Amino acid sequence: MAPSFNDENSLFNFVVKEGNGVKGLVDLGLTEVPDRYIQPPHHRINNKQAAGSHENLIIDLSEFDGPNHEQVVKAIAHASETLGFFQVVNHGVPLELLESLKVVAHQFFGQPVEKKVVYLKGVSPTPLVQYGTSFVPENEKAWEWRDFVTMTYTNDAEARELWPNDCKEVVLEFIKTTSEMVQKLLQALINNLGVKVGDSRFHELTGFNTVNLNFYPPCPNPELTVGIGRHSDAGMLTVLLQDNIGGLYVRKAEPDHASPGNELWVEIPPVHGALVMNVGDSLQILSNGRYQSAEHRVRTTNTVSRVAVPIFNGPLPTTKFGPFPEIVARDGVARYKEVVYGEYLKSYFEKSLDGKKSLEFASME
């Protein structure tokens, strides 16, 4: 039964509990978004605030293991200290795989709802696969125009047994082919801080991966909605494949701390064959604030459906971590306290997305 768009309970049941999601609404042929999706004015994406692409945003990783290694590391570190975002090319991930990822993402969300609700939050046969919509719709005043499925990686055998059949092999290959790159970048960023980390500790800090397939159906009122609200990621480093439609915006840090609605946002344009990288909260904590987790958000479009596939790399859930002692000794102050990553994630997912407020969980203040 189609929901009454004016009845929040009916809408919640249709979109969230029954798993129809935003795609289910679009398939009904709606011509304007329900009130529940209308964002407060200061959360909407105003193109007048958007700057062009950031200088030195694209980094060629073919130079990483050659004579220009130091220059590449400096470029990566500079991007991580300022915008918290950069794009990489010549990264070693086959372009055919990236195209296949986009195809299987569209295929997953194009299935009948009965196939998707098998993995619905709360009823999924495994905690390793969760299908849902928005971020935490139970807690949000305004919902995001997005459906998603999250797959947590433990090992190949469990992934092949428990992940959705139609996308598991391609997603697994995406994790495998990006893993070495992510490890190299994180090792370089940590070394750049003047810190040495042993292999077992490095694994504790970087050994946890989850993958999202994000789906953004066309929206009749893109100026009133967001695909994903403003937030930073919880982990160490995120690898993102965007399609050629675009819509990702990153907040540019400003010295005068511009008020909400007046900040400057940089669009991260789609570049064929590139992968987008961004710093997460955990790397900001470990670096004692030297590296900046990037506050970002995603706009909607009224033309076509788009997909994006991020891999979130982070510490193992049982790992306790705080700022590296060497950096605290140098800085003379610890800006963050020690936290257990699993507890950080629990706090992160209990709240609505709200900029970088997730970091308050680890704040010393």
Automatic annotation (TrEMBL):
Record domain Fe2OG dioxygenase: where: 207-315
Keywords recorded for this protein, A-Z: Dioxygenase, Iron, Metal-binding, Oxidoreductase
Coiled-coil parts of chain: none
Cofactor: L-ascorbate
Pathway annotation: Phenylpropanoid metabolism
Catalysed reaction, written as an equation: (E)-feruloyl-CoA + 2-oxoglutarate + O2 = (E)-6-hydroxyferuloyl-CoA + succinate + CO2
InterPro entries given in the database record: DIOX_N (IPR026992), IPNS-like_FE2OG_OXY (IPR044861), IPNS-like_sf (IPR027443), Oxoglu/Fe-dep_dioxygenase_dom (IPR005123)
Matches recorded under Gene3D superfamilies: B-lactam Antibiotic, Isopenicillin N Synthase, Chain
EC number from the UniProt entry: 1.14.11.61
GO biological process: coumarin biosynthetic process; response to molecule of fungal origin
MF terms (GO), sorted A to Z: 2-oxoglutarate-dependent dioxygenase activity; metal ion binding
Keyword Membrane: no
Family assignment from sequence similarity: Belongs to the iron/ascorbate-dependent oxidoreductase family.
The protein's name: feruloyl-CoA 6-hydroxylase
Organism, scientific name: Helianthus annuus
